[in-house]
Fold this sequence. Notes:
By secondary structure, the protein is of the alpha/beta class. The protein has two domains: 7-81, Orthogonal Bundle (434 Repressor (Amino-terminal Domain)), CATH 1.10.260.40; 86-289, Endonuclease, Chain A. Helix content is 51%, strand content 12%. The chain has helices spanning 7-22, 27-33, 38-45, 53-62, 68-81, 96-105, 126-137, 144-164, 178-182, 188-202, 254-269, 277-289, and strands spanning 110-115, 171-177, 207-212, 226-230, 238-243, 248-251. It has a six-stranded mixed beta sheet with strand order 3-2-1-4-5-6, sandwiched between helices. Helix 1 crosses helix 5 (68-81), helix 4 (53-62) runs antiparallel to helix 5 (68-81) and helix 10 packs antiparallel against helix 12. The longest helix is centred in the middle third of the chain and has 21 residues, at 144-164.
Amino acid sequence: MTDGVGPALARMRLSNQLRELRDERPAAEVARAMHWSLSKLNRIENNKVTIQPIEVEALAHHYGVSDPVEVQRLVRLSVASRRRMWWRDEHEHLDEDFLNFIAFENDASHLNGYQATFVPPALQTPEYAIALTSSILRKPPRHPEVRKIVDVRLKRQETLRERLAGDTPPRISQVIDEGVLLRPVGGDKVMAAQLDHLVEVGAQPDIEIVVLPFRLGVHPGLGGSFELLTFSEDDDLDVVFIETPAIEFLLTDAEETAPFREIMKELLATDAAGDSLDRAVANAVRALRQ
Length: 290
């Protein structure tokens, strides 16, 4: 199935299927037959580059795929994988792993995440996002780097809102530590507006926000913040994104992403033991006023 598939998911499906079609054939032999370098074939099969539709058709025929319907399905995946989306215009400003994460985010059926230090990016107000990014980058709020990151974050939110209003909205599950609500990023006024926004978006049917109070003590999320994407049509594919001040990681290997799925499951299961969002926000508002 290729209808409605975004470029990131289409490219991953295509690379996996082309690798399966090669089967036991030596990669060097296939590369020579296609008049490619071996590195080009490796990059295609490892989901590093796209492949043109005419090349997909030729490769499928080389592998003995005779069913025209199957060949056209592979070609459509190639076409979808090469579709240019808005985030590709940011390639000069942002890390490649982050751009790939945004692409996967656009296809994900469930957006999960745990944040220990700040409000999840999808739920931030513009003012909160500016104050947070300015502090992390150690640059003034009007600095071009700050504005670029915030603009991309707000565009991601806009794209997500459009998907939530569509026929097949994604599910959003975000777990945050109580300290996130008590840290007045941007000052009391900015934080008060951010808390109000959390209550507003948390009331939407497809958005779940879980607050882990301090009294819970230790929990699986203490290993660090992360974002986890899952896909209803590709249950064997999970995507994890981890962001640090120095480097960003995008994980797609099943062995690497499996622990994060389990951690997320355990964190969401603490909802009954934690505070309701309204209660946690009320406590945070009282702390702001003290």
